[in-house]
Amino acid sequence: MLCFPVPETGKGSTSRATIAILHGAAYVSHTVVRLPNLSQNEEAMFRVIFRALAFFSLAVAVIMAVIDATRSIAASALTFTPLRESWSSVSPETLNQFQMLIQQHTLPMLWDPVLVSVLNMPGWAVFAALAVLFLALGHRRRRPTFA
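RE: above sequence
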């Protein structure tokens, strides 16, 4: 089954087309989903929350990058500290609890191929990517103005 977005049909709505292939025949379904209309105050609140998360993630990324730069200078070689190593040095019990939570309450395959590879990345890169994601979510959309 394939799902893909279709151009909007009206304000506050989004469309979705679904293609299902059963016994060699393709069936197409077009669904219009009404999205909840958020007030300007609610949108502003979510933007502030996402911007604060972006600021915090960027601060952690800079701190971790400075630590890696210091270790690289001391070792006279490029050194990256994996997120797993940083997390286990700060709070090893929460890393173990997080692993158990993911393995017991979600798909166990989510831990090993996906999250293990993220935890093996440099910590500054993971937090920098989170900062960019949160900043994009908190970005204020410009509405066209007509003079």
